[in-house]
Structures are given as C-alpha cells and as structure tokens.
C-alpha cells in the first residue's frame, strides 16, 4: 500500500491506496506547533481505527505548501511508518511538462492535481481546487501544464470581510435562496456564494477562449460541491483529486526505478 499526504495551509489530507483502490482517507488540521510524535500518535490512531496499520504502507509520497513543517512530517514518517517519504518537487517524474517561466514556482499540490485531472478525466482539462486559495490550472492534450490563476479562497475571503470591517459580522457560508438578500447576513452570504460562482464561470469561459476549444472541468477541495451545485461549468467533482495525483506520481517513479 501507498500512503499519500497533501499538506495544505488549513488541512492535511491523507489516504492509503491499495493499488488504485483507496483503502482509507483521513483529514487533520495543519498545526505548525505539533511535534513529530504528536502527528505520529494522531495518524496512528486514525489509521488503526479503520483496521489498517502504519506498517501496511510500503511507501509514502507527500505534497506540501507549508515548508515549515516538512522536517517534522518527514521525521514522523521515518519514526512511525519506518519509511523515508518521497517529497514531490524538482527531479520527481510526473508525466507532464510545465510551461512556466520558473517551474519551481508551481506548488506541488497544483502539479498533483494536474497529473490526476489529465490522467483521470482526459484533456484538455481545467481543474479548480477550492482550498485556502482557489487555484485554477490548465493541461492541454499533450500533457503540458500551461498555467492558470490563483484567487483568495472563499473561506479566507469571508473571514477577511468580517475581520476587516467594523460593522459586518463573521458569518457561516451557505447557499442562500436568492441573490437579493433582505438581511445583512443574507447579503453577505449571497455576495460571497454567488460572487464566487460568477468568478468560476467567468474564469473558466476565458480559459476556454484562450485554449480555443472546449475542455473538461474538474473541481476539488472543501467548497467544490457547494459551488458546483450552482455552476454549470463544472463537469466533475473529485474530493480526492490531489491524493490520486500523488499515487499516480509514485507509480511513475517506481516504474522508472
């Protein structure tokens, strides 16, 4: 089995794969103060509860956008899994090429998403990851990551709205019944939800125009399902897209060796 980890700014998403089958999936908060033992004990409990064991992992692959905890996580992997993890970065075979002025600038999670979207859903493909930041990426028929765009995540934007204003309250994200709200809360929810739906629709349309052809659109991340319910431009919602991409990248590198 292969253990995959996607370390994000808000959450760490993990999964154990038995071949293509996902045998277990877990998500924990990203805590920059945790020690390797605290992370190890936490993952050990979660994995054991599903009837699996850390020793079932024959390999580990990690994507991370939080460099400050990479050493801690690597240490945990060695002590608790008995494995030296593969860190997705320069030098790791992915099966796609990156058309970026500086390919090292591309987040490893975006590369994992690009690999999974390309191999699982065909091409050209546009993927949208609704995380702490909302990231868009485009992969063409030849397996070339062309680039994309990055926007504030919907939760991050809503928190900033509450924190940066004197009278507007913090609010729970929800899909309101109408765009025209009759309370301050309804106004906030409407502006945030339908505003992001409009953002997604417009950016996808512009990307397809620049491609000069249609493309499959795949969404992942915590808010993907909620946005997809209103947006007709999203063809597929895949909550484990990044982890699937990590598994595929692991297999490509193992075949090389």
Describe the protein's architecture and organization:
The longest helix is centred in the last third of the chain and has 28 residues. It is built from seven helices and eleven strands. The strands form two sheets. The protein has a six-stranded mixed sheet with strand order 6-9-8-7-10-11, with helices on both faces. The protein has a five-stranded mixed sheet with strand order 3-2-1-4-5, sandwiched between helices. Helix 3 packs across helix 7. By secondary structure, the protein is an alpha/beta fold. The chain starts with a strand and ends with a helix. The model has no long low-confidence stretch (mean pLDDT 94). It has two domains: 86 residues, Nucleotidyltransferase, domain 5; 149 residues, Nucleotidyltransferase, domain 5 (2-Layer Sandwich), CATH 3.30.420.40.
